[in-house]
Amino acid sequence: MKDYYSVLNIATDASATAVKKAYFRLVRQFPPDRYPKEFMRIREAYEVLIDDNTRRQYDVVDSMPDIVKRYFAEGQKAMEAGDFPGAIKLLEEVIRVYPHFAVVKGLLGQAYLENDNSGKAIRVFEELVAEERNNAGFVRLLAQAYALRGWHKKAVEQFKQALQLDEDNISLWLGLIDSYLQGDDFESAQETVRKGIEVSNRKGWDNLELYFHIIQIDIFSRDYASMTKHLEEMKNKAVEKEEEKTNVAWFLAALSKLLHGMGMYSEAQATIDTAYALEPDDEEIIAIKDEIGSQVSVFSELEKLKGDPSIDELFAEMLDCELHLCDDKHCMDCKLEQFAYEMDVVAEMESFRGDILRLKKSYPELYELKQGFFDNVLNHKKEQYLLNTYGKRLKKYFKQFPERFEPEDEAEEYQFNPEPYRRPEPKVGRNDPCPCGSGKKYKKCCGK
Fold first, then answer.
1. Cα-Cα end-to-end distance for the chain
2. How many CB atoms neighbour CB 7 within 10 A?
3. CA 138 to chain centroid
């Protein structure tokens, strides 16, 4: 059977104050976002042992008949292994013998919740809250069940009630914040985090997780002034407490990925640089730093390209699209947008070759994003191949997605399936000036 005293590393006669100190120490070591499984075990042990009634029930488990005690222990193991139907079957047997055993009922309710039986879970937790009105852990479980059912207002009220019973439980603050966010109430979520930070500072428990959440809220609500302020406060925590340096670095690395995903490239770079300064040997942080560094460089080139009058703006739009493709490799929206830009280039290959050459020379990292396509366009021998290929693709897409094309696009398809291609201007000799405007001989430039 899971030993909650061992989880918190305390004696069986530890006082409530000792239980809280152990909880604070372990949460600092295993913050929930970074160590979710470990934190859940810590929270479960804390919520049982901090309440006099559930602790008293837990302490008498050993006096149960062996068969009942074994069912309870196996039910716990099944829960940890993710076998929720198995856990439900075992715990229901224990409840059949001990129908008023709150600790077992709470675990059964969690098994129902994990098994998507939210209706049963809510009934169990509502009964427990009615029976154990001062147990913040059971109120939290009821709030969580409401939230998973989509009843955000009910969840908010229960989390508030739980915090009145135990304002030192970090899970309650995070649950209330998440409930507000699920209801798109950013203002209340921000206010809750600020209040949580004030309580934590006053009572001396770790609030790193709250800073992590308020910075995310700042980002999503576009409150960049607050984000900068809270980010600086978060960084200072690593200076004040050496033992928190690793977790602060991890949180900053996670935030840098979030910032980068929202297009805040300079902020992402600054954040990951700070994480690296705290933990320069962390392989995950190094990998994130390298990835963001290379992408920030590409986006910097893109911004320059957007203001470059020597290259048609079509290429900036095309490459911007390339950099913002979604993660789904089969997304037709992305494929069609890419195709539209490429088709525009193929339709006017001769006039765009000079732009592509200037792009290759001045913006090599951007050129690499579509190097295969650009190389084909520059290769005169590939002209007919590109015209035929894109003509077939246009015909295919027009049939599959007619609603995405203008009616005249069907007629335009024929220009991609013409008579054998004829160059519209006289052939350029190998020693003639290159028509791209580079000033070089054709054989030294596009005629390579």
1. 75
2. 19
3. 29
d(C-alpha 369, C-alpha 356), whole Å? 13
* Residues in CB range of 416: below 8 A, 6 or more apart: 346, 347, 387, 388, 390, 391, 392, 394, 395
Instruction: Answer for the pair 158, 139: CB distance below 8 angstroms, yes or no.
Output: yes
C-beta neighbour count of 222 within 10 angstroms = 10
Structure confidence by residue, pLDDT tens digits, 218-235 = 887 778 788 888 878 877
Coil, helix or strand for 433?
strand
Cα separation, 127 vs 436, in Å, equals 80
- In single-letter form, the type of residue at position 266 comes to S
Residues 6 or more apart whose CB falls under 8 angstroms from that of 189 comprise 177, 180, 181, 217
Among 62, 67, 57, 110, CA closest to 87: 110
**Residue 441: strand, helix, or coil:** strand
DSSP 389-426: HHHHHHHHHHHH-GGGS-THHHHHGGGGS-SSP--SSP
Express each pLDDT in 341-389 by its tens digit: 999 999 999 999 999 999 999 999 899 999 999 999 999 999 999 999 9
SS3 per-residue string spanning 175-242: HHHHHHHHCCCHHHHHHHHHHHHHHHHHHCCCCHHHHHHHHHHHHHCCCHHHHHHHHHHHHHHHHHCH
Helices and strands per DSSP (H, E), number in the chain: 24, 0
**CA pair distance 162, 156, nearest whole angstrom:** 10
Residue 163's Cβ-count burial label (10 Å; 0-12, 13-18, 19+) is buried
pLDDT (tens digit, 9 = 90+) per residue, 400-417?
888 777 665 554 543 433
